[in-house]
Design goal:
The structure is a homodimer. The first copy, chain A, contains 34 helices and 33 strands. Chain A is α/β, with parallel strands linked by helices. In chain A, the strands form seven sheets. The first copy, chain A, has an eight-stranded mixed beta sheet. The first copy, chain A, has an eight-stranded parallel β-barrel with strand order 26-27-28-29-30-31-32-33, surrounded by six helices. In chain A, strands 1-2-7-5-6 form a five-stranded antiparallel beta sheet. In chain A, α16 links the parallel β16 and β17. In chain A, α13 packs antiparallel against α14 and α14 crosses α19. The interface between A and B is large, with 49 and 49 residues.
Chain lengths: 870, 870
């Protein structure tokens, strides 16, 4: 087994084995670039070390010796040699980037003997002792686990004794003394002298890096970023080069293109006479790369030349670290640079124009989910901000406004011309007008599919839900955060719906811009994707926006949201409170023309495209007030007794409303509701059609769990349609949601009665897991932290569970009806991993919020490309 | 195709084709018994007629003619002949018994001509005209759909004109006039004369019987009794014989054994000079069969001889109809007689002793579910009763007592020595003491698995739940039923938990008796069954009872019920309200010894048998009060502020508690709870074992949906066990509930970490269907009525949905661990159809309420026998 790879033995495809850093250093070496030489110990050795009781594979020591010898020969220096000492850095580097999470040791190999060689070679005693004291400090801290403060105390003491402020004001003798004092710290804290033998130093440093794989910081980072299944970190041992050897030395970082906007300009920073850590520490202000052209034109030219070479080689924008040692340029790292969504789009299209990438390759370079940044107004990333709490990023975008604590106040403040943030423990249908009036919504309870979250996403409004760090004190019109910040009514806060951050005060906003490049990329995506992309849109306005974003139809139009508006909810309540069929019919007759008008406008907006309209789904109590005060108000306005209304509300109360009397179950007991809705759909379609619009209505029945439900309801829907038989010159399709496990398991029975299936993965996830999204905020965070779940199943389809049921449904459904059209309209329809899964199991379309349509188009294309490559 | 079978062409196994009646008449004919001859039109003709627009198969008419001819030859009479007329009955008869639901026409073939022949042959003019007027009335009503009242009016008019009271007081001339008046009714109501042609009469009668298959009555009956998949009714056309031809004629019914208690004695009724309908009508009081011995000893001997023959032939107790026409005995029907559970057991064991049945055959003769009648105190079936409302039969048995409306009153009344019925809208954990004190529980809401239902079943107490016909007016301490009956506090009512009937006043009770025969039958069952039968038992008392009923272990011991008792719930609340781990640990330390004592006593009761203990399952808010008043009381008693307690209660509130923070999810966030419980189990087992008891503890973790939950919790459980390693000299197994779809779908991942699976089909049904049992009472009745569901999935496993997931779980689980032990502990574990399903998919055991253990033992045996026969 090869445990160690000298740089000339590896390549860029060995990230799993050599880590990103090791693989890219090997690749640059192979390209003939100036790289300080070295070798990389594999991630497998790390895994062995950590799992086998901190021991090494048998032949490891021999390979280490061999590679060290090769490095000495290559560098023309000898490790631990007092005349011509080799110094090395020891760095971590896993397959996935985990910046700053693991340990690094620089200047390793210095002791009281080798420093003489260093002084002789560099003719720079101050530099040598500065390196020495830095090394003892770093090694003591990182390898020997001594608190940094102990070293800092000595430094402060000596500075104070000498009456100086900056490190750089210390003399060579001061530094010498500091080395000795630092070693005293080590002796005192560990009970042992500082290890002077460079070989011991190296072994201890390697072990420290291995152990740092499992430190708390690294574990947390991997969990947060969903990094799983890696073996460990590789360790790269590399000759030191020094950017701090005077005015012809320096160090810098360089992006080959602008990572903010993607423009093809050099973007980087550079410090003369400095080491890498000085750039990071931020003590001195770095220069732009242009400065380098002036002070070291040849080095600059070489840098430009090589960065072009690297970009062509990697066929992507590079993030490069370099050091100049006495006018000689060295490359210490290159990797594909992180970038904003905006930049990703620009760079991908530019690289295609430059002939470096095919369109398909370019599509794969863009993180579909990151497009969210472009598609909503977003906060200026450069602005300072004070985050006072963090909740669930329930609806993306950002909002700034004055805090209010109830819906009526929101409306009033909005009418006064102010921007408004509505803060509630949770929202209910009674808050709809207030949500409309608000720029953003913050709730202290509820999950990603809570009322607030769903409605806000539907409205395209920013929302942070389940922010348990906030305690809402409605009575005193204020909220208090975990850190004790008190925010009163009228105070200004900013919400970042994409990160869940609640920020005190105003943060500047950047408007979304869909540039020409973005449109071009989406065009390429449309050429290769197999999945159709539709939108979930409940209003003509949503439909219009969806179409602008490229939706090929409406996959889910939720009719109930139409009932929440002021005038309508009154009629809806009249219907619910009716004592008999006659009373219900009377109220429904009032609702019919309202629904019809909505449907007609939607059909007009979606001229030529299918519109899937879901019949009433939520339980009736959602349309009634919950609190006694509101019940009293409603009773008053309807002219009925409080007790009677209260009793009705109580009798409609459900223990588990999610599993209650809703969806098609309502239609079985109250057939007149769906009859009214179907009539409204048909009449709207007839009128729109008569006006020259090409209508494609699709009627969708929710919550089917049993084929007989569909049999009965389909017949009832068809009966209404047949009443208009002579006036209909278009197709009307009748299909069903698939959103409870039983529907999946009996899909072969259901399919012959359904013109289409549409997966409602929100409810399917809740039932499959037995997990209410409104209640799971209490334990989901811990589940994610402990990696019980790798991702919240409300965000990305749980493929092992929910996905297994979806596969069963697709197989059973198509076993009965081979060409059955199947889509998805749950929240997952706009999430890239879920979209890939939908592609792979053969769905026909995904449907998502209008704002996610472009994301879905790109993700569908990526899924298609990836599947074809397999 | 043969559409019609003459009696000598069929046999008893052709019930599907000839109906029960037709098949048995054929069988009796083949046995050479005196049966008035005839023929049977098949159920397939009925199906054809009803589905093909009321038309007949092509060759039907010819076959009808041929069979009629054969019947004439056989009877020596001619249909429609004025000299020697053949009269026939036309009767319905489906494969399943549907007594009184479909139509029958007697005396068919009379008209003004044939009656002369009838008079001549019988020399009884009065009899002949009485038959004629009965025929016109019956035909007019049944075939021509004329309201019976129109005929009754004529009868009343003539009786009043003649000044008589009884029909029998009318003269021959009166009857003649009545025939004419009845025909006038037919002319008036149908606009056509009465059909005089016997062939027309026959065709019309056959069609009427066919149509009666789909009348409302019959449809409802089939739905209620779960009769599905039949083609239709057969029609039997049979020579009339007359029991009303004088003192040497008569008619009767005979059970070959007593259907109430199963004793081998004749049991029947008999009327001299009467037709069958007179017995049914109840105008005259029938004689016992003994009377027949006195008046017609030869006929009696023949009857005894033939009934023995029939019982031997059918190898079961028979329900026989016979008619004596002028001293000649005829058999009109025989069938296996309906019987009580008690009689079923007695008859089955007697038939085995008599050598008529094998033990296996005897086992199949007993309806396992009916044993419920024996296993709970039950109401005297012969007592009069006034049913004022009907709800869900949530927990079987019966109870009589005074009505109270809250738990405290129940306790007080019980202490005063009274029997108590607790009436609530719904019950909650706060009512436990009141439920304990009550003899029966009645709730107006909630389903078969509501709190009231589950707790009552656990306590073995009678409960009627979801009785929506009752409106509880807690404030005025009364309830009002749908029919307006008002029941006040202190009034006596009787509950029948097996039927759901609420009865006003006291009904006499019969104590359960498990007779020697019953024990013998269960012994046979134990010999053949493959499924082990365990019990769900939460207390030592339950465990004792379960063992008496033959349970082979405890399959589910719900630890939470132990927490609801007075002293304990206070400590439980202290634990829940603790602000930190320390406070929780302090409260848990108090609970530990209590749980330990319970477990120890259960281990002692179940010496040598496995005890599966489920760790805490319900959400924490179930242990806190819900109403402000109760919260205030608790706050006072705990010495904390109302607002603080109220906030805690609010913060624990869940939108869908069934899908919330419960089961293993609680243990992930509060590991100390399970740690305490495991410690209690282990210490209890160690102490019991030290006392010489053979303990077999099994620890069960609820609500696993994800293998990582089990991985973490199993390790934590094991850690506690390992602390006692040296003191443990028995096995402790650790398994999991399978109760959400995701657990089924990932059973192959879960199995390697589970020593056993136990299906929690209550929750699995709710999640698979997306159906909360607490809320479904609003629509399930309609679902059953409209045959959307054939049975409430809470009662019998939904095999197409829930069953499909169970199969997946068994297959996947055993694919990973071939010998995995799998059981079921949901409510379905005691339901015979579900038990058969469990046997067929290869489960190892079922676990059910102690009272259902004998039922499960028998059902398991039946499943085993049936499967072996296939």
């Amino acid at each position: 087994m090869q445990h160690i790879y000298f740089f000339d033995e590896g390549n860029k495809d060995q990230k799993e084995l050599l880590g990103g850093k090791g693989a890219n250093l090997a690749e640059m070496t192979n390209l003939g670039l100036p790289v300080p030489q070295g070798f990389t110990i594999t991630t497998e050795v790390c895994h062995y070390y950590l799992s086998q009781n901190h021991s090494y594979p048998q032949d490891f020591d021999g390979q280490l010796e061999t590679n060290l010898l090769k490095l000495e020969q290559n560098a023309g220096k000898i490790f631990g040699d007092p005349e011509n000492p080799l110094l090395v850095s020891v760095r971590s580097g896993a397959a996935a980037s985990m910046p700053g999470m693991m340990d690094t040791i620089l200047n390793l190999g210095i002791n009281d003997q080798t420093i003489q060689g260093l002084i002789n070679k560099t003719e720079n005693e101050r530099f040598a002792y500065d390196a020495y004291r830095r090394f003892v400090n770093m090694f003591g801290n990182v390898v020997l686990d001594i608190n940094h403060e102990h070293f800092e105390e000595q430094m402060e003491a000596i500075k104070s004794a000498r009456g100086v402020v900056l490190d750089t004001q210390l003399t060579v003798n001061d530094l010498k003394e500091l080395v000795s004092l630092y070693k005293g710290v080590v002796q005192k804290e560990t009970g042992k002298p500082f290890p002077d033998n460079p070989s011991d130093q190296l072994k201890l440093a390697i072990e420290a890096v291995f152990k740092s794989w499992n430190n708390d910081r690294a574990n947390t980072y991997r969990k947060i970023h969903g990094i799983y299944g890696l073996k460990g970190t590789a360790v790269t041992v590399q000759s030191m080069v020094f950017g701090n050897m005077g005015e012809t030395s320096g160090t810098g970082v360089l992006f080959t293109r602008n990572p903010s906007n993607g423009e093809k300009v050099l973007y980087g920073e550079f410090l003369i006479n400095a080491q890498g850590e000085d750039v990071v520490a931020g003590i001195r202000t770095p220069e732009t790369i242009d400065t380098l052209r002036q002070v070291m034109p040849e080095v600059y030219d070489q840098l430009i030349d090589i960065k072009d070479k690297l970009e062509k080689h990697y066929r992507d924008m590079q993030d490069i670290e370099f050091t100049i040692e006495e006018s000689k340029l060295y490359f210490l790292q290159t990797r594909n640079g992180k970038r904003t969504a905006h930049a990703a789009v620009k760079i991908a299209t530019d690289l295609v124009r430059e002939g470096l990438l095919t369109k398909e390759e370019a599509l794969l370079k863009i993180d579909a989910n990151s497009l969210n940044q472009i598609l909503h107004p977003h906060l200026d990333a450069t602005a300072a901000k004070k985050v006072i709490a963090t909740g669930l990023p329930a609806s993306p975008g950002a909002a700034v406004g004055k805090v209010v604590f109830n819906a009526d106040d929101a409306v009033a403040l909005k009418e006064a011309g102010e921007n408004v943030i509505l803060v509630r423990k949770e929202t209910s249908p009674e808050d709809i007008h207030g949500m409309h009036a608000s720029n953003g919504i913050l709730t202290s309870t509820g999950g990603m599919t809570s009322h607030a979250a769903v409605v806000a996403r539907g409205m395209g409004k920013c929302c942070i839900a389940g922010c348990s760090e906030v305690v809402v004190d409605k009575k005193h019109r204020k909220f208090i955060t975990k850190d004790g910040t008190e925010v009163k009514e009228g105070d200004i806060i900013t919400l970042n719906g994409s990160t869940g951050e609640v920020i005190l005060g105003l943060v500047r906003m950047v408007e979304p811009a869909v540039s020409g490049d973005f449109l071009e990329v989406l065009g390429w995506a449309d050429e290769v994707r197999k999945l159709q992309v539709r939108a979930n849109a409940d209003t003509p306005e949503d439909a219009k926006r969806a179409r602008e974003f490229g939706a090929e139809g409406i996959g889910l139009c939720r009719t109930e949201h139409m009932f929440f508006e002021d005038e309508r909810i009154a009629v809806m309540r009249e219907m619910i409170l009716a004592q008999n069929l006659e009373g219900r019919a009377r109220a429904l007759a009032k609702l019919m023309p309202m629904q019809k008008q909505d449907f007609k406008r939607i059909f007009i907006e979606m001229d030529g495209l299918p519109v899937t309209i879901r019949l009433l789904d939520p339980p009736l109590h959602e349309f009634l007030p919950f609190y006694d005060k509101k019940i009293a108000e409603l009773a008053e306005s309807m002219g009925i007794e409080f007790e009677i209304l209260k009793n009705t509300v109580d009798s409609l109360h459900e223990v588990n409303p999610m599993l209650g009397h809703r969806g098609c179950r309502l239609a079985i007991t109250y057939p007149e509701i769906y009859q009214m809705q179907v009539q409204a759909i048909v009449e709207a379609a007839i009128e729109a059609s008569a006006a020259g619009v090409k209508v494609k209505p699709e009627i969708e029945i929710p919550l089917i769990g049993n084929v007989k439900e569909l049999e009965i309801l389909r017949a009832e829907v068809q009966e209404v349609i047949d009443e208009f038989k002579n006036a209909i010159n278009f197709d009307i399709r009748i299909g069903t949601m698939i959103e409870v496990p039983r529907a999946c398991l009996t899909a072969d029975e259901i399919a012959p009665l359904a013109d289409f299936f549409s997966f409602g993965t929100n409810d399917l996830t809740q039932t499959t897991y037995g997990l209410s999204r409104d209640d799971s905020a209490k334990f989901i965070p811990q589940y994610l932290e402990r990696a019980i779940m790798l991702v919240d199943p409300a965000e990305s389809i749980d493929q092992a569970g929910v996905g297994a049921l979806m596969k069963i449904a697709v197989e059973k459904g198509r076993s009965a009806v081979p060409n059955l059209e199947i889509g998805i309209c749950g929240e997952h329809g706009g999430e890239p991993h879920s979209i890939e899964f939908c592609h792979n199991i053969g769905l026909n379309y995904v449907s998502c919020s209008p704002y996610r349509v472009p994301i879905a188009r790109l993700a569908a294309a990526q899924a298609s490309i990836k599947a074809a490559r397999k």
